[in-house]
Write a structure and sequence with these properties.
Helices cover 66% and strands 0% of the residues. The chain is globular, with a radius of gyration of 15 Å.
C-alpha cells in the first residue's frame, strides 16, 4: 500500500502543483497503517477492525509520535472523527491499492483539492479521477501477490 501512497502523492503533486500536504506523514501513515494487525493476526486474512482500535497505542509504545500513530486508526474510515487531508489520502491509498473506488471519500478529497488549490470542484475532479484510476489499476495482480505471500 505504501507504493500506492507514493504514486498517489507523486501524481497529485504533478497535477496540483500548489497543493500543500505533509507527504512525509502520508508515507509514514501508509507504512504503519496496518501494524495493529500484529495484535490481531486473524485480521491479516480475514475481516475485522480491532487493529484500527489497538494500532495507535502499539505504535506509540514503540516510539512513534501520536500525530503519526493516528493513521493506524483513521485509515479504515474517516467519518467517525475530524481528520486532516493526510488522513484522507492514507485512507484513499489503502482503498486504491485494493482497486476500490469510494465515491464519498473521493468527493471529500476533490473538495480539499479544489479548496486548497483555488480551482473549481469539476476541474479538481477531472484531474483527480484520472490519477485515482491509474493508482487503482493493477489491483488484481497486487491482491494475487498478497494472497500468495499469506
Amino acid at each position: 500500500m505504501h507504493d500506492a501512497a507514493a504514486s498517489l502523492l507523486e501524481e497529485l503533486t504533478r497535477a496540483f502543483p500548489t497543493l500543500s500536504v505533509d507527504a512525509r506523514a502520508v508515507l509514514i501513515g501508509a507504512a504503519v497503517h496496518d501494524l495493529g494487525k500484529a495484535l490481531h493476526p486473524e485480521e491479516l486474512s480475514g475481516p475485522g477492525n480491532l487493529h484500527e482500535r489497538d494500532g495507535p497505542a502499539l505504535l506509540e509504545r514503540h516510539g512513534l509520535e501520536p500525530s503519526l500513530a493516528r493513521f493506524a486508526r483513521t485509515h479504515g474510515g474517516c467519518d467517525s472523527e475530524p481528520v486532516e487531508p493526510e488522513d484522507l489520502l492514507v485512507c484513499l491509498a489503502d482503498r486504491l491499492w485494493r482497486g476500490v473506488r469510494d465515491n464519498r471519500l473521493e468527493g471529500r478529497i476533490v473538495q480539499v483539492l479544489a479548496d486548497r488549490c483555488g480551482i473549481e470542484a469539476w476541474e479538481a475532479f477531472e484531474r483527480f479521477d484520472r490519477i485515482a484510476e491509474r493508482v487503482a489499476s493493477g489491483a488484481e495482480s497486487r491482491l494475487a501477490w498478497q494472497a500468495a505471500v499469506d
